[in-house]
Amino acid sequence: MWPHSALPRPLRACDGDAPRVAIGVYHLSLPVLVIIGILLLSFLVVHVAVPVGQRFGFSFNEFGRSLKQLRKVIDPMLKEIWCKPVASMTEAPSTLALGTPDAFSWADLERLGILGNLTTAQLQQAAENPDSFLRAAAAGSRELLLSACAARTAQLHPQAEAQQVYQELAQAHLREFLTPEFATQSPNFTAMLDTVLDAAYTFNEETLPVPEEGPEQEEADELRLVGSEHAEHAHGDVVTVASAADELPAKTPFAANSTFSTTSLENRAFLMDSLDFGLFSAAPRFGQLARQSIPVIWVSLVSLWPGLLSSFLQMIWCVPVPEDDVIVNRLLPNPSVICWSDEHLVSARFAIAGLFFWCLGIPIALATLLLRLPDRHAPDNFRRFGYFFQGLERQFWWWDLLVKRFDLGLMMLVAYTSVVPDPAAKLAIFPVLSGFQALLVACVRPYTNDQAEILDVLEVTLCSIRFLLFSGVAMLLNLETSTQTVHLVAYLLLLVLVLGCMDFFAHFAAQVLRDAATRTKSSAEKSAPWRSLGGFQRFVIDLALPLFTEARSAKGAK
Fold this sequence. Notes:
Blueprint: H1 9-55, H2 62-82, H3 106-111, H4 120-128, H5 130-139, H6 142-156, H7 162-169, H8 180-185, H9 189-200, E1 201-202, H10 215-220, E2 224-225, H11 264-273, H12 286-292, H13 294-314, E3 318-323, E4 326-331, H14 342-371, H15 379-385, H16 399-416, H17 423-444, H18 450-478, H19 483-526, H20 528-533, H21 535-548, H22 552-557
Antiparallel strand pairs: 1-2, 3-4
Helix pairs in contact: 1-13, 1-14, 2-4, 4-5, 6-7, 6-9, 13-14, 13-16, 16-17, 17-18, 18-19, 19-21
């Protein structure tokens, strides 16, 4: 075994370069590792977390949550109508011929495909007015109307067999009842069913069929259908619909109703609402999963950008050091390394490659991608890339992606390089850059004008605080000030920071309270349980909201 002094010089140099090479490789490959991690995490979420959550009754998309909310309203309503428990969601018979439809339930809506054709907006409207939804659904599907009428008959006349009533009623002509006008004119769901039953057949409650009394008495007590010929005998248990022409031609039971009309835009909105976490379709293939993960990848890369920039700049951060009347540039994080020597070039190559490929490539590539979009505010494009331009004016969609990145890049370039070699000069440059950014924001005003340009005001305020902070620090460090002056300036800067944070919190709290007040009011109007459980929450919101909003008199004076 050779002693360390006896090792060949190239081998010792290689051992010294290994840590810097490892750091360079790590930072250069970090975005790739993040992308791979996102794909693996997305795969686990879609194929493991979502199915397990759905098995326990959780929903991860807007459509599923709206469907669950609708069932919470429909189930108690049907239970109250039929005065008996409603069948669970999984208890859906394959055909009505296999069992007796003694109770019209949520399972019938699912089995007949009524719910699958609805958009999220229609589900929300149905939850607000469940009786209207049931009337429109029954008027839009002959089989659903027959099932509901059979359940109504079994409720009113327990002596009658619901399956027999269903077979009898299935031969009647119900076309006049399968219209949106009939559903709208009916006062409620049960009255609608009673109207159909009264018009479709006559039921003699006093004389029921008794098999022991012979065929004549049994024939006299049978149901008499109106508007159709009664078959003498039912062949088997299979239910036969009288006429296919009685079905509405619309795709959904609400197509003829303007309230529940479905357009191509609503279809696209339905597809987006059915995406889990707003991103993933149900059980996508790996290629689809990779495409659907692109928004998460871009957000992660942009969030990773400041750390990558500072790391790569520090790998080439050289400072002049006087040595024996000679100025030698040494690497500040590792002063034993002379800048741009063979020892340093190994890690410097990684830094330069990362600066050009990642630090310049990420914002430029994303800006090019957004520039090529025909309509950035289209629902699908906004869902995928709205994170980068939400809150900005349409013509300034590039502000956060280019201007803010350029501002941050300049600050890091001054801080982590020797572009400005003198530390005192660095401190003087920071207020200049901060003041320029504040003036630029005040002149351009790139944010939307909602709520009296509150976003522009907040941005200018925060940039001004940044300017004051760097100016105060530069003054304290570059000037020979007394201890009392340092304390005074420090307290003033702290006060400015606290006031700025309080102002930001006030605007944030006002927005949150306004949204909560709107949701609370709408929820209280929709459901009785909220009225009983949400009283305290509404009291807190009503008490706190005036503290964070402007008085009406002040608004009128403006």
